[in-house]
Amino acid sequence: MSDLFKKAISLGVGLTIVSKEKVEKVVEELVKRGELAPSESKALVDRLIERGEEERGMLKSVVQEQVQRVLKEMKVPVQSEIDELEGRIAVLERRLAELEGISHLEGTSAETRTD
Length: 115
Hints:
Low-confidence stretches: none
Oligomer: single chain
Strand content: under 5%
């Protein structure tokens, strides 16, 4: 049983893409061939599914890290940088609107004023 489990674990990333139904089918075949006791089948399925979920989580982390690294290398701005720039633009738009309002009150445009 433990050797069988070790072989299944050695599949590694393969477990990340195997569905629960396929795992159950393979374990059912092992029971039919007498390589696994029926009483052990549910525990094996549960362990294989758990291992698959762990592998998926690890794979997801690795992919996320690689994507972040590539985006950084390409100098793609992160959301916080975009938010900061949007805030700065909003401040500049308000200041421009205020200046345009003052210019209209004085009867001159902002472009023709010379101070």
